[in-house]
Amino acid sequence: MTAADLAAGAMAALATVFVAWAVARSGGPMTASLLLLLAGSSIVAALARSWVRARCQPARRLVARADGSLWLQAAGQDPCRTTIGVGTRLIGPSVFLDLRVESSPVGERFRIWLTPFDVPSLAIRRCSVVLRRCGRAVRQ
């Protein structure tokens, strides 16, 4: 679970409470406020369920080989060759990785936003060098 995941969960929970409070305070019907709370709570529950599912997955490691190829390694599994997807971005001091596993017949994708809170800044800088070498570094 990354810092971006936690921030998304916190923002969804706060937005749910704020919108329900604003509807109730403005004199709106109480059922609308309760429905908003129910909808927001289901979003937060879906996020929490995805976090639990992600924690059960084996840890993954992205390895850049000397020939420029990228390989995704998971504990107890064979390494899989990956390509960098169109969504990969350098965002300030962080990086959003959109990886497509080539060995998967359905083209399985892994997406993760890594910030300096998740991994050391040196690792993000190394990742940005690999992305530039692959021709996929885009600044936003």
Distance between the termini: 24 Å
Helix content, binned percent: 40-55%
Reported for the largest beta sheet, the result is:
6 strands, antiparallel
The helix/strand order is HHEEEEEEH
- Beta-strand level of the residues, as a percent range? 15-25%
Describe the protein's architecture and organization.
Helix content is 45%, strand content 23%. With 140 residues, the protein is α+β, with helices and mostly antiparallel strands. Strands 1, 2, 3, 4, 5 and 6 form a six-stranded antiparallel beta sheet that branches. The chain has two domains: 3-56; 60-133. 8% of the residues are buried. The chain has three helices and six strands, in the order H-H-E-E-E-E-E-E-H.
Task: Summarize the entry for a quick read.
The chain has three helices and six strands; from the N terminus they run ααββββββα.
List keywords for this structure.
alpha+beta, 2 domains, 45% helix
Set out the fold topology.
Blueprint: H1 3-25, H2 30-56, E1 60-64, E2 70-74, E3 80-84, E4 89-91, E5 94-101, E6 109-114, H3 121-133
Antiparallel strand pairs: 1-2, 2-3, 3-5, 4-5, 5-6
